[in-house]
Amino acid sequence: MKLKHVVSSFLVILVLWSCKEKVRPEATVLVAEKDFEYVVDQFADLRVLRYQVPGFEELTLKEKKLVYYLTQAGLAGRDIIWDQNYRHNLKIRAGLENIYTKFTGDKTTYDWNSFEVYIKRLWFSNGIHHHYSNDKIKPDFSIEYLNYLLAETDTELEGEAFEVIFNEVDSKKVNKKKGVDNVASSAVNFYSPDITDADVDAFYRTAYKGPEGRPIETGLNSTLVKENGKVVEKVWKSGGLYGTAIDEVIKWLEKAQTVAENEKQANTLELLVDYYETGSLDAWDAYSIEWATSTQGNIDWINGFIEVYNDPKGYRGSYESIIEINDFDMSRKMAVLSENAQWFEDNATLMEEHKKDSVVGVSYKTVNVAGEAGDASPSTPIGVNLPNNNWIRQQHGSKSVSLGNIVDAYSNAGGSGRLKEFANDEEEIRLEEKYGKLVDKLHTALHEVIGHASGQINPGVGQPKETLKNYRSTIEEGRADLVGLYFVMDPKLDELGLVDNWEETAKASYDGYIRNGLITQLIRIELGDDVEEDHMVNRQWVSAWVFEKGSPDNVIEKLTRDGKTYYNINDYEALRELFGELLRETQRIKSEGDFKAAQELVEGYGVKVDQALHAEVLDRNAQFKSAPYSGFVNPVLVPTTNEAGEIIEVEVLQPASFEEQMLNYSASYGFLSSKN
Question: DSSP states of 129-153 as a string?
Fold first, then answer.
């Protein structure tokens, strides 16, 4: 039976899969649209939300099938991110999930509750390291209790995979700190444990880098290991490393080809399959060009080994998948940024030699997510700009998307308590409450569409991963933020119809950015820790730099009232000039490959934390129940078939709980062995 307009409001009680055979849901509960519950679960420092999929019911059957096949392709590679994140993750997950499903003892104890929280944290982070801080997650139960659970459930978990849960080995998934061997001190499974910084540098000095002027993303889809004392690459492809999961991805991509919306979209999918089959990074570039220039149709996707944040050397891409349905109304509103990209480039504060003469093909859409997997799930971005290869962006353009329903879910599940605690005055609160949602979408659009597309590298200068090394990602994210911050306070936005009061919108944007960069993001890290996640680092170095440089003129004032710290912007125009000055310098660093300047900027302003302020912020935040990090369960796309096995409808259901979806995923999409 086909139900219109209410499919995104189902809550379904899922049952587990047994022996890889799907068991249909035993019961469903229909929930009225107005009663849709965004919050699914909360534990530790994490909150799990749901998101709706507006517009899905308006798609044709062919389009629904395309979304379904692409979503299945994404989930088929889910095990890959677990193994990429840490070499023992899959073995640990299998052991703990066996305990979770088979233990029949007392589940009212502190120890069992601690075990439940621990396994949920691992599900959220796709492994034993925190998704944001990269620190190893520490259990609140003892070795003795885990041994008891193993015995009670006849579960095997031993050796390093058992010991690492409790010891100090591999304590950091990604370590980009200055003065250490970043590869050897990172637990991420892109390199075997005996590989060092020097090994990686030596290997890539002579590695194939692609045709002249069209460099490939060297190392994007491989693991480096030592065999008989020699460093070799193990490529992720069909028949290679991760081949069993990749073959499943290919199977669903080939099904997607049969229902593509147009010939170019079908060709794009064929090139993606070719890349997965061959592992060739030249094939990846061919796919990326076709994907970047395939802009027609209602459905789009991101699939592959893409973002390099998890590699301390910036080579290897984490597996991820996002399936997107076009939000036509918001896309029309924001498309004006793409259409005026050259104006923004021409009017940026960059040195003339660092500006592009022609900004090519910056495609922008607001989309609604229909499914995510890999590094994009449960913790998801809110905006994406791809492809990452610089020469492709310059010659063929890029796609920027804002994940509209994800942004909306965050907004609908939030509250105003933290704002009122950390904002300096009533005016700051008023501006945020009036313009906050718009500012979030606008800054994301400016960051992705204009920011990542702007500027160019000087001739003869290497790629940022080679020149800026471990600072490459935070410099790029900060640079894109600065583009957005500079232009959000420009009357051009009124002229383009994006805002109706550019001055107040800009003030709300600046207030929020400084408040977050200097105060509120500190709730996300443990007292005594440095700031390490690339985006958090960039928000701090941007905010701290403008605060310091504007101090002589009191541009931003640090205030203390009743023992509480606040920051107040006294001169918004002067702050905009400082953002422009820092943008100019950050682009120079990227364009010239100035590693020393990047290091001084990041280490000098972005990493260290005022411990007294941090303790104060944590104390002030303790009153709020909402966790500082949020992620999502995914809707469940359920196909209905006729007697011939043909899909005749696809419905969108919602999982009843986080744990049921995670267990379902492991049983349904567990295509890798515990050792790869």
Answer: B-TTT-BBPPPSS-HHHHHHHHHHT
Q: Rounded CA gap, 7 and 30, in Å? A: 9
- CA nearest 591: which of 388, 390, 311? 390
Residue that is last in its domain, among 323, 338, 370 = 323
Rounded Cα–Cα distance for residues 195 and 231 (Å): 8
Which tokens sit at 314? 């910036």
Alpha-carbon separation of residue 72 from 65, 162, 260, 623, 669 (angstroms): 11, 32, 15, 41, 9
| Count of all residues that appear for the chain in the document | 676
425 and 284 housed in the same domain:
no
Residues forming a β-bridge with 39: 49
Instruction: Of 204, 199, 207, 201, give the one whose Cα is nearest residue 231.
Output: 199
- Helix (H), strand (E) at residue 536: helix 534-549
Question: At CB < 8 A and 24+ separation, what contacts does 106-115 make?
Answer: 111/141, 111/142, 111/145, 114/139, 114/140, 114/141, 115/139, 115/141, 115/145, 115/146, 115/149
First to last CA, the chain: 43
Phi and psi torsions of 333, nearest 5°: -65, -40
Could you tell me the residue range of the domain that residue 116 belongs to? 89-127+137-163
Q: Which of 479, 503, 507 is nearest to 597 (CA)?
A: 479
Residue 223 scores a pLDDT above 60: yes
**How many domains are contained in the chain?**
3
Supply the CATH number for residue 206's domain: 3.30.540
Average pLDDT, the chain: 92
The residue to which tokens 């000087």 are assigned: 458
422 and 451 housed in the same domain: yes
Q: What is the pLDDT of residues 595-618, one digit of tens each?
A: 999 999 999 999 999 999 999 999
- CA-wise closest residue to 61 among 330, 299, 244: 299
**653-666 per-position pLDDT tens digit:** 999 899 999 999 99
Instruction: Please check the confidence at residue 29 and state whether its pLDDT lies above 70.
Output: no
77 is a domain residue: no
Question: Which phi and psi angles does 563 have, rounded to 5°?
Answer: 75, 10
- Which residues 6+ apart lie within 8 Å of 487 measured at CB? 344, 348, 446, 450, 493
The vertex-166 CA angle with 163 and 172, nearest 5°, equals 95
- Same domain assignment for residues 420 and 535: yes
Both 593 and 463 in one domain: the answer is yes
